[in-house]
What does this fold into?
Amino acid sequence: MSRKPPPLKKVAYFNRELSWLAFNRRVLDLAQNPRVPLLERLRFLAIVSSNLDEFFEIRVAGLVQQVDSGVVEVGIDGLGPKEQLRRIHHVAGGLVEAQYKTWHEQLRPALAANNIIFKHEDDWSKAELNWLDDYYHEHVYPVLTPMAIDPSHPFPQLTNKALYVLLSLDNPNTVEDDKMMAIVPVPRVLPRLVRIGSGPRNIQVYVFLSSIIRHFAGGLFPGYKVNGAWPFRITRNSDLYIDEEEAENLITKIEQQLHKLRRGAAVRLEIREDVDDGVLGQFLKAINLAEENVVRLHGPLNLLRFFEIIGDIGQDHPDLLYAPLHPHRPAALTAENLFNEIAHHDVLLHHPYESFDPVVDFIRQAGRDPQVVAIKQTLYRTSGDSPIVEALIDASRQGKQVTALVELKARFDEMNNIQWARQMEEEGVHVVYGLVGLKTHCKCCLVVRREANALKRFAHLGTGNYNPKTAKIYTDFSLFTAHPKLTEEVANVFNALTGFALSPKFKHLLVAPFNLHEEIQKKILREAANAAKGKPARIVAKINSLIDQETMDNLYHASQAGVKIHVIVRGICGLVPGLKGFSDNIRVTSILGQFLEHSRILYFENAGGEQPELYLGSADWMPRNFYRRIEVVFPVYDPELRKRIIEDVLPAYLRDNMYATELHANGAYMPVKHHDHDKLFSAQEYFLKQAADASAGEAAAQEKEREKPKLRAQP
It folds into this structure.
């Protein structure tokens, strides 16, 4: 059962980078979906820009480095770095074009119909121009620093993703066409979208800051003629390069690398589409960038800036946003002592439909409980004003033994985590930075409590970060347990992270890089063996990404053996489903919606075993999760919790035909097929209604209890 199957006669894989772009195309689909509230569609449009920024900063930058280093090896999909870059530029270019078409043809007109108007320079009225003139000279002009480019003014260092305006200037006192270059950096303190203060109060008019600067740019260079002004931003390589073996002080090394990121090699230039070709060529030479990396934009730069005003607009137009989220908090978890409840039975929370507050309370109560002697906690990403960190600090002040495993290399959260690590260390928390070469990505908390002259362990295991803010927009699971076999192995995970452990043993938890990959392969091949014997065989995997070759190959083998496989994947998928005789028993769907699907759920039929196997966890099916991260995937043993997931949660995800799309063998994601008479069903909307009904039911029960007549005391 654990032996490797014979090699596949043929293979088929989608390219990782192109699959990621397909995911971002599905995000853009939400911006185009009329079922989605209008301001939320604007938010999804902004998310596309944010996602593309990170894609170019990390993935494209890595491919560029490979090309520069002469790497020609092809991946499992048969594509080398050069061919990947060529296809990426083509697909990403089409995606950006569709993004701006969505803005101009759908969202901007729809917003205008709701008296939310975005104006370009040609549309400004005289009154608006006068107001903008005052605004520019009072708020913008004083903080601008025009920078000439000539032999006495060397080319400036341009910051990653910052906004600039490139200008072409002529000296009217010379005969020749000078085409001198100048750059105006736009300070980050200035809002990128400006609401015009004149006009009717019921109409919201916004102007892009770059348009304001373009219009008034001539005043920055008195005596010169401005031939043109074009807003631009550069995306640079933003990956960290750290040799942990050589880094004596990891914090200092990361801080140094973060400073260098601002000066990383340019990998993309976004600039207004009407830029002069001659000026552009001169500029590209200065930043050492090929023209194939230029993205000419028909519209405002960096649509991510819409985030700044969605909340402001939403105050006047709440109907254009999703309804406010009111997470349900189960009545059993409102008790003063959560440990008594968890000792009685395991507790499962489904975020954001159920409140994240009990997770914070679990740590807070541990810090204040005189019977608690130790707390151990992993931190990968947390909020800027983290109540989790505050609770750990408070616990340390109360004399508890507190250990925090802080992952310093959580991409784009490095500085945040460094600050928390230093603050906790100052308060007596024992801070550990995990194992060399491995990111600590698991989500675990262990509390050791003295009960009846013995020590009892309590654990929280999650699929998401200890971040109350993202817990409101990411779907995740939290399991509270006092199950001795689970809590003992959670303790072993922490011991491996803080001590020396070359090969720790786990029987219940699947822990990367120790046994996770091997056990997943065994379970897939067991299903294949059962199917070959005519036994029921089924795999359901809800994950974020699937790109590990051995896992995909074993899924192909299982499909050919007759195993029914359904993969619900949010992002990257290298698996090719639906190929006759090869992967026709594999179905891949993706669900995007109001909340970001982040939970991982694994189901294996396990015919012949005591019961189907059910796991939750932090790991995707990618090489990095299997081999380069500390991950924890944990079983669900409690019968009631298993029933909830197997009979309710998973069927809801599999039933979604409103926001779910299905991956076809040609790489296209298409809406899940349904007949005209089929009722549309959204898993996320279903879970929201469940939570609302549960809250209403508990409120009604409490009200009924209050209305009961009180018995009078007997005389």
Summary: The first strand starts at residue 116 and ends at 119.
